[in-house]
Amino acid sequence: MSPPRVLIVVNNPSFFLSHRLPIALAARDAGWDVHVATAPEPADAVDRIEEQTLQHHPIPLSRSGTQPLEELKTLRALYHLYRELRLDLLHHVTIKPVVYGGLVARVAGCPAVVSAISGLGYVFAGESLRHRALQAVATRLYRAALRHPKSRVIFQNAYDRRTLEDLGITDPARAVMIRGSGVRLDQFSISPEPEGTPVVLLPARMLRDKGVVEFAEAARALKSREIDARFVLAGDLDPGNPAALERDTLDNWVADGIVEWWGHCTDMPTTLKQCHLVVLPSFYGEGLPKALIEAAASGRAIVTTDHPGCRDAVADGDNGLLVPPRDSDALADAIHALLEDPERRRAMGHRGRERAEAEFSVDEVVRQHLEVYEALLNESRSQKVLSR
Questions:
Q1: Closest CA to 151 of 167, 131, 125, 169
Q2: Which of 90, 275, 276, 304 could cross-link with 201 by S-S, CB 3.0 to 4.6 Å?
Q3: Residue 105 and residue 102: Cα distance in Å, rounded?
Protein backbone atom coordinates (compact mmCIF):
# COMPACT_ATOMS: atom_id res chain seq x y z
CA MET A 1 0.00 0.00 0.00
CA SER A 2 1.35 3.43 -0.94
CA PRO A 3 1.88 5.93 1.89
CA PRO A 4 -1.05 8.22 2.65
CA ARG A 5 -0.72 11.61 0.95
CA VAL A 6 -1.43 14.92 2.70
CA LEU A 7 -1.35 18.42 1.27
CA ILE A 8 -0.88 21.35 3.68
CA VAL A 9 -2.19 24.59 2.16
CA VAL A 10 -1.02 27.89 3.69
CA ASN A 11 -1.23 31.38 2.21
CA ASN A 12 2.38 32.39 2.94
CA PRO A 13 5.48 30.16 2.81
CA SER A 14 7.12 32.08 5.66
CA PHE A 15 4.08 31.41 7.86
CA PHE A 16 4.29 27.72 6.99
CA LEU A 17 7.93 27.63 8.10
CA SER A 18 7.29 29.45 11.38
CA HIS A 19 3.99 27.79 12.33
CA ARG A 20 3.50 24.43 10.57
CA LEU A 21 6.89 23.00 9.55
CA PRO A 22 7.23 20.73 12.64
CA ILE A 23 3.86 19.11 11.82
CA ALA A 24 4.89 18.49 8.21
CA LEU A 25 8.23 16.97 9.21
CA ALA A 26 6.65 14.76 11.87
CA ALA A 27 4.01 13.55 9.39
CA ARG A 28 6.75 12.75 6.87
CA ASP A 29 8.69 10.83 9.52
CA ALA A 30 5.51 8.94 10.42
CA GLY A 31 5.19 7.67 6.85
CA TRP A 32 3.03 10.28 5.17
CA ASP A 33 3.78 11.60 1.69
CA VAL A 34 3.75 15.30 2.54
CA HIS A 35 3.07 18.08 0.03
CA VAL A 36 2.90 21.82 0.71
CA ALA A 37 1.06 24.50 -1.29
CA THR A 38 1.66 28.22 -0.70
CA ALA A 39 1.98 31.46 -2.60
CA PRO A 40 5.24 31.54 -4.61
CA GLU A 41 6.73 34.45 -2.65
CA PRO A 42 8.94 35.08 -0.80
CA ALA A 43 11.14 32.83 -2.91
CA ASP A 44 13.75 32.26 -0.20
CA ALA A 45 11.05 30.80 2.06
CA VAL A 46 9.96 28.44 -0.74
CA ASP A 47 13.60 27.37 -1.14
CA ARG A 48 13.76 26.56 2.58
CA ILE A 49 10.63 24.42 2.31
CA GLU A 50 12.11 22.45 -0.57
CA GLU A 51 15.38 22.04 1.36
CA GLN A 52 13.37 20.00 3.88
CA THR A 53 12.62 17.47 1.10
CA LEU A 54 8.97 18.50 1.14
CA GLN A 55 7.24 18.77 -2.23
CA HIS A 56 6.14 22.36 -2.78
CA HIS A 57 3.38 23.54 -5.13
CA PRO A 58 3.04 27.28 -5.88
CA ILE A 59 -0.52 28.59 -5.82
CA PRO A 60 -1.63 32.14 -6.79
CA LEU A 61 -2.86 33.19 -3.33
CA SER A 62 -3.20 36.96 -3.03
CA ARG A 63 -3.27 38.78 0.31
CA SER A 64 -6.54 40.57 -0.48
CA GLY A 65 -9.75 39.44 -2.12
CA THR A 66 -10.46 42.54 -4.17
CA GLN A 67 -9.68 41.20 -7.66
CA PRO A 68 -12.40 38.69 -8.71
CA LEU A 69 -10.42 37.32 -11.65
CA GLU A 70 -7.41 36.65 -9.41
CA GLU A 71 -9.63 34.87 -6.89
CA LEU A 72 -11.06 32.67 -9.65
CA LYS A 73 -7.49 31.78 -10.67
CA THR A 74 -6.84 30.67 -7.10
CA LEU A 75 -9.93 28.48 -6.99
CA ARG A 76 -9.08 26.93 -10.34
CA ALA A 77 -5.47 26.26 -9.34
CA LEU A 78 -6.57 24.58 -6.11
CA TYR A 79 -9.08 22.40 -7.97
CA HIS A 80 -6.53 21.18 -10.50
CA LEU A 81 -3.91 20.55 -7.80
CA TYR A 82 -6.34 18.60 -5.60
CA ARG A 83 -7.42 16.45 -8.56
CA GLU A 84 -3.84 15.89 -9.73
CA LEU A 85 -2.41 14.78 -6.38
CA ARG A 86 -5.13 12.22 -5.53
CA LEU A 87 -4.94 13.10 -1.86
CA ASP A 88 -5.89 11.17 1.25
CA LEU A 89 -6.05 14.31 3.38
CA LEU A 90 -6.09 18.08 3.03
CA HIS A 91 -4.91 20.42 5.78
CA HIS A 92 -5.98 24.05 5.27
CA VAL A 93 -4.36 26.74 7.40
CA THR A 94 -5.28 30.46 7.65
CA ILE A 95 -8.50 32.08 6.51
CA LYS A 96 -8.29 32.07 2.71
CA PRO A 97 -7.05 28.46 2.37
CA VAL A 98 -9.72 27.33 4.86
CA VAL A 99 -12.52 29.02 2.91
CA TYR A 100 -11.35 28.55 -0.67
CA GLY A 101 -9.79 25.15 -0.05
CA GLY A 102 -12.84 23.92 1.82
CA LEU A 103 -15.16 24.94 -1.01
CA VAL A 104 -12.95 23.29 -3.63
CA ALA A 105 -12.28 20.10 -1.64
CA ARG A 106 -15.86 18.87 -1.89
CA VAL A 107 -16.09 19.57 -5.62
CA ALA A 108 -12.73 17.88 -6.25
CA GLY A 109 -13.73 14.79 -4.30
CA CYS A 110 -11.07 14.98 -1.57
CA PRO A 111 -11.80 12.26 1.01
CA ALA A 112 -10.90 14.15 4.23
CA VAL A 113 -10.19 17.72 5.30
CA VAL A 114 -8.59 19.41 8.32
CA SER A 115 -9.35 23.12 8.69
CA ALA A 116 -7.17 25.11 11.10
CA ILE A 117 -8.80 28.28 12.43
CA SER A 118 -5.76 30.30 13.49
CA GLY A 119 -7.86 33.30 14.53
CA LEU A 120 -10.95 34.84 12.99
CA GLY A 121 -9.21 38.04 11.88
CA TYR A 122 -10.69 41.50 12.04
CA VAL A 123 -14.05 40.56 10.45
CA PHE A 124 -15.54 39.08 13.64
CA ALA A 125 -13.86 41.62 15.94
CA GLY A 126 -16.05 44.67 15.24
CA GLU A 127 -19.68 45.76 15.62
CA SER A 128 -19.89 48.44 12.92
CA LEU A 129 -22.30 48.14 10.00
CA ARG A 130 -19.38 47.29 7.73
CA HIS A 131 -18.20 44.56 10.09
CA ARG A 132 -21.71 43.12 10.33
CA ALA A 133 -22.02 43.01 6.56
CA LEU A 134 -18.66 41.25 6.27
CA GLN A 135 -19.64 38.85 9.05
CA ALA A 136 -22.78 37.88 7.15
CA VAL A 137 -20.74 37.07 4.04
CA ALA A 138 -18.03 35.28 6.05
CA THR A 139 -20.65 33.20 7.86
CA ARG A 140 -22.08 31.90 4.60
CA LEU A 141 -18.64 31.12 3.20
CA TYR A 142 -17.45 29.36 6.35
CA ARG A 143 -20.67 27.36 6.57
CA ALA A 144 -20.20 26.08 3.02
CA ALA A 145 -16.44 25.49 3.40
CA LEU A 146 -16.55 23.57 6.69
CA ARG A 147 -19.25 21.03 5.86
CA HIS A 148 -17.14 18.25 4.43
CA PRO A 149 -18.54 14.94 5.79
CA LYS A 150 -15.06 13.67 6.78
CA SER A 151 -13.48 16.65 8.50
CA ARG A 152 -12.09 18.20 11.66
CA VAL A 153 -11.92 21.89 12.54
CA ILE A 154 -8.98 22.84 14.77
CA PHE A 155 -9.40 25.84 17.06
CA GLN A 156 -6.73 27.60 19.12
CA ASN A 157 -9.04 29.31 21.62
CA ALA A 158 -12.49 28.79 23.09
CA TYR A 159 -13.90 32.11 21.82
CA ASP A 160 -13.37 31.21 18.16
CA ARG A 161 -14.86 27.75 18.69
CA ARG A 162 -17.91 29.12 20.48
CA THR A 163 -18.40 31.86 17.87
CA LEU A 164 -18.54 29.46 14.92
CA GLU A 165 -20.63 26.91 16.81
CA ASP A 166 -23.16 29.57 17.88
CA LEU A 167 -23.47 30.67 14.25
CA GLY A 168 -24.20 27.10 13.20
CA ILE A 169 -21.03 26.98 11.11
CA THR A 170 -19.24 24.08 12.80
CA ASP A 171 -20.40 20.80 14.29
CA PRO A 172 -19.17 20.44 17.90
CA ALA A 173 -18.50 16.75 17.24
CA ARG A 174 -15.90 17.69 14.62
CA ALA A 175 -14.20 20.46 16.62
CA VAL A 176 -10.75 19.94 18.13
CA MET A 177 -8.90 22.31 20.46
CA ILE A 178 -5.12 22.51 19.95
CA ARG A 179 -3.27 25.31 21.74
CA GLY A 180 -1.58 27.24 18.96
CA SER A 181 1.39 26.14 16.89
CA GLY A 182 3.57 25.33 19.89
CA VAL A 183 7.02 26.43 20.97
CA ARG A 184 10.37 24.64 20.98
CA LEU A 185 11.14 24.55 24.68
CA ASP A 186 14.78 23.69 24.01
CA GLN A 187 15.25 26.77 21.79
CA PHE A 188 13.29 29.24 23.90
CA SER A 189 14.82 28.80 27.33
CA ILE A 190 14.56 30.87 30.47
CA SER A 191 17.50 33.19 31.19
CA PRO A 192 18.31 35.99 33.64
CA GLU A 193 17.24 39.48 32.65
CA PRO A 194 20.10 41.47 31.12
CA GLU A 195 21.84 44.21 33.07
CA GLY A 196 21.17 47.85 32.28
CA THR A 197 18.15 49.88 31.26
CA PRO A 198 14.98 47.74 31.06
CA VAL A 199 13.89 46.82 27.53
CA VAL A 200 10.16 46.62 26.76
CA LEU A 201 9.65 44.59 23.58
CA LEU A 202 6.73 44.41 21.15
CA PRO A 203 7.39 41.46 18.76
CA ALA A 204 4.93 41.63 15.84
CA ARG A 205 4.43 42.79 12.31
CA MET A 206 4.05 46.55 12.12
CA LEU A 207 0.25 46.59 11.96
CA ARG A 208 -2.21 48.94 13.61
CA ASP A 209 -4.37 46.07 14.86
CA LYS A 210 -1.37 44.53 16.62
CA GLY A 211 -1.54 47.58 18.91
CA VAL A 212 1.67 49.20 17.65
CA VAL A 213 0.18 52.71 17.82
CA GLU A 214 -1.03 52.15 21.40
CA PHE A 215 2.45 50.88 22.30
CA ALA A 216 4.05 54.05 20.95
CA GLU A 217 1.50 56.19 22.81
CA ALA A 218 2.21 54.30 26.04
CA ALA A 219 5.95 54.71 25.50
CA ARG A 220 5.50 58.45 24.99
CA ALA A 221 3.43 58.69 28.18
CA LEU A 222 5.97 56.74 30.23
CA LYS A 223 8.85 58.86 28.97
CA SER A 224 6.89 61.95 30.04
CA ARG A 225 6.77 60.36 33.54
CA GLU A 226 10.58 60.06 33.31
CA ILE A 227 10.49 56.26 33.39
CA ASP A 228 13.92 54.91 32.46
CA ALA A 229 13.25 52.22 29.83
CA ARG A 230 13.83 51.41 26.17
CA PHE A 231 10.77 50.65 24.06
CA VAL A 232 11.53 48.35 21.14
CA LEU A 233 9.51 47.27 18.12
CA ALA A 234 10.73 43.98 16.62
CA GLY A 235 8.95 43.19 13.38
CA ASP A 236 8.85 43.95 9.70
CA LEU A 237 6.64 46.19 7.62
CA ASP A 238 3.73 44.48 5.91
CA PRO A 239 2.81 46.78 3.00
CA GLY A 240 0.26 44.38 1.49
CA ASN A 241 -1.86 44.47 4.65
CA PRO A 242 -4.61 47.12 4.95
CA ALA A 243 -3.66 47.64 8.62
CA ALA A 244 0.02 48.23 7.83
CA LEU A 245 1.86 51.18 9.35
CA GLU A 246 3.81 53.42 7.03
CA ARG A 247 7.58 53.56 7.27
CA ASP A 248 7.41 57.35 7.76
CA THR A 249 5.36 56.86 10.93
CA LEU A 250 7.91 54.46 12.37
CA ASP A 251 10.83 56.65 11.31
CA ASN A 252 9.23 59.65 13.04
CA TRP A 253 8.78 57.73 16.28
CA VAL A 254 12.41 56.66 16.16
CA ALA A 255 13.60 60.19 15.36
CA ASP A 256 11.58 61.53 18.30
CA GLY A 257 13.21 59.01 20.63
CA ILE A 258 9.91 57.30 21.47
CA VAL A 259 10.81 53.80 20.28
CA GLU A 260 13.60 51.77 18.73
CA TRP A 261 12.73 49.75 15.65
CA TRP A 262 14.82 46.63 15.19
CA GLY A 263 12.96 45.43 12.09
CA HIS A 264 12.53 41.75 11.32
CA CYS A 265 14.44 39.58 13.81
CA THR A 266 15.33 36.10 12.59
CA ASP A 267 16.71 34.91 15.95
CA MET A 268 13.78 35.37 18.33
CA PRO A 269 15.28 33.33 21.22
CA THR A 270 18.21 35.78 21.37
CA THR A 271 15.93 38.80 20.88
CA LEU A 272 13.76 37.75 23.83
CA LYS A 273 16.84 37.25 26.03
CA GLN A 274 17.65 40.95 25.46
CA CYS A 275 14.37 42.20 26.93
CA HIS A 276 12.80 42.48 30.38
CA LEU A 277 9.12 42.63 29.45
CA VAL A 278 7.09 41.58 26.40
CA VAL A 279 4.06 43.60 25.29
CA LEU A 280 1.45 42.75 22.67
CA PRO A 281 -1.54 45.15 22.77
CA SER A 282 -3.31 43.36 19.90
CA PHE A 283 -6.97 43.83 19.06
CA TYR A 284 -6.75 41.59 15.99
CA GLY A 285 -8.69 38.31 15.89
CA GLU A 286 -5.78 36.22 17.15
CA GLY A 287 -5.76 32.44 17.47
CA LEU A 288 -3.03 32.01 20.09
CA PRO A 289 -0.19 34.44 19.33
CA LYS A 290 3.11 32.63 18.83
CA ALA A 291 4.96 35.69 20.14
CA LEU A 292 3.29 35.30 23.53
CA ILE A 293 3.99 31.60 23.99
CA GLU A 294 7.60 32.21 22.94
CA ALA A 295 7.81 35.00 25.53
CA ALA A 296 6.37 32.69 28.18
CA ALA A 297 8.84 29.93 27.29
CA SER A 298 11.67 32.50 27.57
CA GLY A 299 10.64 33.39 31.11
CA ARG A 300 9.49 36.92 30.35
CA ALA A 301 6.48 38.59 31.94
CA ILE A 302 3.83 39.75 29.48
CA VAL A 303 1.44 42.66 29.12
CA THR A 304 -1.28 41.98 26.57
CA THR A 305 -4.94 42.66 25.90
CA ASP A 306 -8.00 41.01 27.39
CA HIS A 307 -8.90 39.84 23.90
CA PRO A 308 -9.49 36.41 22.34
CA GLY A 309 -6.24 34.57 21.80
CA CYS A 310 -4.11 36.97 23.81
CA ARG A 311 -5.89 36.21 27.08
CA ASP A 312 -5.47 32.49 26.36
CA ALA A 313 -1.70 32.85 26.77
CA VAL A 314 -1.76 34.99 29.93
CA ALA A 315 -3.52 34.54 33.26
CA ASP A 316 -3.98 38.06 34.62
CA GLY A 317 -1.71 38.61 37.61
CA ASP A 318 0.01 35.24 37.19
CA ASN A 319 2.37 35.27 34.19
CA GLY A 320 1.46 38.79 33.11
CA LEU A 321 -1.16 41.52 33.07
CA LEU A 322 -4.22 42.01 30.86
CA VAL A 323 -5.42 45.44 29.76
CA PRO A 324 -8.43 46.57 27.70
CA PRO A 325 -7.84 46.69 23.93
CA ARG A 326 -7.04 50.10 22.39
CA ASP A 327 -6.41 51.69 25.80
CA SER A 328 -2.93 53.22 25.76
CA ASP A 329 -3.36 54.72 29.26
CA ALA A 330 -4.12 51.33 30.82
CA LEU A 331 -1.26 49.86 28.80
CA ALA A 332 1.16 52.48 30.11
CA ASP A 333 0.03 51.86 33.70
CA ALA A 334 0.53 48.09 33.40
CA ILE A 335 4.00 48.48 31.87
CA HIS A 336 4.87 51.03 34.56
CA ALA A 337 3.75 48.66 37.32
CA LEU A 338 6.02 45.85 36.13
CA LEU A 339 8.99 48.11 35.41
CA GLU A 340 8.76 49.44 38.97
CA ASP A 341 8.56 45.95 40.50
CA PRO A 342 11.37 43.74 39.11
CA GLU A 343 10.78 40.99 41.66
CA ARG A 344 7.12 40.62 40.66
CA ARG A 345 8.06 40.79 36.98
CA ARG A 346 10.64 38.01 37.28
CA ALA A 347 8.26 35.82 39.29
CA MET A 348 5.71 36.22 36.50
CA GLY A 349 8.35 35.21 33.98
CA HIS A 350 9.11 32.00 35.87
CA ARG A 351 5.41 31.14 36.05
CA GLY A 352 5.17 31.80 32.32
CA ARG A 353 7.91 29.24 31.70
CA GLU A 354 6.04 26.73 33.85
CA ARG A 355 2.88 27.34 31.83
CA ALA A 356 4.75 26.96 28.55
CA GLU A 357 6.13 23.61 29.67
CA ALA A 358 2.67 22.42 30.74
CA GLU A 359 0.60 23.74 27.81
CA PHE A 360 2.56 25.05 24.81
CA SER A 361 5.19 22.46 23.87
CA VAL A 362 5.47 21.99 20.11
CA ASP A 363 5.88 18.24 20.68
CA GLU A 364 2.38 18.07 22.15
CA VAL A 365 0.94 20.20 19.35
CA VAL A 366 2.52 17.91 16.74
CA ARG A 367 1.25 14.78 18.52
CA GLN A 368 -2.31 16.11 18.56
CA HIS A 369 -2.19 17.00 14.87
CA LEU A 370 -0.98 13.54 13.91
CA GLU A 371 -3.80 12.04 15.96
CA VAL A 372 -6.27 14.09 13.91
CA TYR A 373 -4.60 12.95 10.67
CA GLU A 374 -4.76 9.28 11.64
CA ALA A 375 -8.37 9.48 12.85
CA LEU A 376 -9.54 10.99 9.57
CA LEU A 377 -7.48 8.56 7.50
CA ASN A 378 -9.05 5.63 9.35
CA GLU A 379 -12.53 7.10 8.88
CA SER A 380 -12.11 7.55 5.14
CA ARG A 381 -10.57 4.08 4.70
CA SER A 382 -13.41 2.52 6.66
CA GLN A 383 -15.89 4.31 4.43
CA LYS A 384 -14.18 2.94 1.33
CA VAL A 385 -14.40 -0.61 2.69
CA LEU A 386 -18.10 -0.23 3.52
CA SER A 387 -18.88 1.19 0.09
CA ARG A 388 -17.38 -1.78 -1.78
A1: 169
A2: 275
A3: 5
CA–CA distance, 127 with 324 (Å, rounded to integer): 17
Distance CA 48, CA 345 (A): 38
Domains 5-182+361-387 and 199-359 in one fold: yes
Q: How far apart are the C-alpha atoms of 65 and 70, rounded to whole Å? A: 8
Please say whether the beta carbons of 296 and 203 come within 8 A.
no
How, if at all, do strands 260-261 and 320-323 pair?
A: unpaired
Successive 10-residue mean pLDDT values, the chain, 388 residues: 94 95 98 97 96 96 76 96 97 95 96 94 73 86 94 96 94 95 96 97 96 98 97 93 93 98 96 98 94 98 97 97 98 98 98 97 98 94 61
Q: Is the pTM of the predicted complex or chain greater than 0.85?
A: yes
The residues, ordered by sequence, that sit 6+ positions from 192 with a Cβ below 8 Å of its Cβ are none
Q: Exposed e or buried b for every residue in 179-192, given b needs 16+ CB within 10 A?
A: bbbbbebeebebee
- Ranges of beta strands (E only) in the chain are 5-10, 33-38, 55-58, 89-93, 113-117, 151-155, 175-177, 199-203, 230-234, 260-261, 277-280, 301-305, 320-323
Q: Top-level CATH class of 199-359?
A: alpha beta
* d(C-alpha 269, C-alpha 298), whole Å: 7
SS3 (DSSP) at 51: helix
